[in-house]
Amino acid sequence: MKFIDEVQIKVSSGHGGPGAVSFRRESFAPRGGPDGGDGGKGGDVIVRATKHLNSLMDFKPFKHYSAENGHPGASANCSGPAGQDLILMVPDGTVVRGVDGDVIVDMTDISEHVLLQGGRGGKGNTFFKTSVNQAPEHAQPGEDSEELEIKLELKLIADVGIIGFPNAGKSTLISRISAAKPKIADYPFTTLTPNLGVVKAGEFRSFVVADIPGLVKGAHQGVGLGIQFLRHIERTRLFIHLIDVSGMSGREALRDYEDINYEIKMYDEANVGKDGFFPLSARPQFVVFNKIDTLSSDELRRQIAEFKKATGLTPVAISAVTGKGVKELIQEVAHRVFEDRKEEL
Ligand SMILES: Nc1nc2c(ncn2[C@@H]2O[C@H](COP(=O)(O)OP(=O)(O)OP(=O)(O)O)[C@@H](O)[C@H]2O)c(=O)[nH]1
Ligand SMILES: [Mg+2]
């Protein structure tokens, strides 16, 4: 399935149907009174969020989507039927913005939102009958429709984001701790779209992890896949920062750690001040050394000590392939996630 996480479209509500001008004509009442019915209301534009979608691919960029117009009123005081609403089905967590970037509505905790109201139907000539004007010849037109240009922006909803270089083992880790089955391969940029996985932590509790495409040095300038995927971890509480310590990448743990954090900082700088933005660099990180099955315990100890000396942080050591250390990591992460959720209540 194609993954589209941003699209600009135009929407309009329905015009109200016009009221009718009509007079009763019956053989025994040749000069019957007015009987023009009211026009129907135009359809609304409604945004509805569902968890059954995870892409905005059903929207055609720059297309104009319209609700139905209200139908005209008719004789015999028949009101026109209302126009059909336009329902925009979007994935949970979609943000609707104006073209100026301001948030109109965030569909994270809201399942339905009326974006535009349809125009009211016009009154038929029956409505205008008075004691002095028994035969009004006019009816009201329907109210105008409204039009709006919007940007739909999908942001996934997850508790934990896994960040790191390509090949660090992010997809391997998510496939080990959840039912997610992303592609795993020994080349960079295997993951091209974010994957979500639900991690069970105990009998009744779970949290959601997002595996996003790998970052590389210079990503904020467009190197590799760029940094736009970081949007999908904007809503996470914390990160697992995964570092490949096997040496096979030809890079070093400390340098990788700093490079990724620099890209995160650049992302923050590009987004600071945006409506509702909370910097990614302010989020807690679990620094995790992966692929420790490829190292001797002496070498691992040396690398951890070196990292700690430089950063003051003690990384968690795991092998996503053998599973070593993974359970402990998940317990720690789960603890942190649940503490964080408690504070929100
Ligand atoms: N020896 C060893 N290999 C690992 C470990 N974790 C992952 N790998 C291997 O590293 C390679 C990359 O793993 P992926 O999980 O695809 O890496 P990724 O971080 O998702 O990479 P991108 O999707 O390209 O960003 C694969 O060949 C994995 O089998 C580990 O703990 N030990
Ligand atoms: Mg991957």
Describe this structure in words.
With 345 residues, this protein is of the alpha/beta class. The protein has two domains: 1-155, Spo0b-associated Gtp-binding Protein, Chain: A (Distorted Sandwich); 160-344, Rossmann fold (3-Layer(aba) Sandwich), CATH 3.40.50. The protein is built from four helices and 14 strands. Strands 10-11-9-12-13-14 form a six-stranded mixed beta sheet, sandwiched between helices. It has a five-stranded mixed beta sheet with strand order 3-1-8-5-6, with no helix packed on it. β5 and β6 (103-106) form a beta hairpin. The longest helix is centred in the last third of the chain and has 19 residues, at 253-271. The radius of gyration is 29 Å and the shape is elongated. The model has no long low-confidence stretch (mean pLDDT 94). The site of guanosine-5'-triphosphate has 24 residues, from α1.
Please count the beta strands (DSSP E, at least 2 residues each). 14
Q: State the helix count.
A: 4
| Structural class label | alpha/beta
Q: What is the CATH top level name of the largest domain?
A: Alpha Beta
Mean pLDDT: 94
> What fraction strand?
15-25%
CATH fold label of the largest domain: Rossmann fold
Largest sheet entry: 6 strands, mixed
Largest sheet strand order: 10-11-9-12-13-14
Mind telling me which CATH architecture of the largest domain this is? Answer: 3-Layer(aba) Sandwich
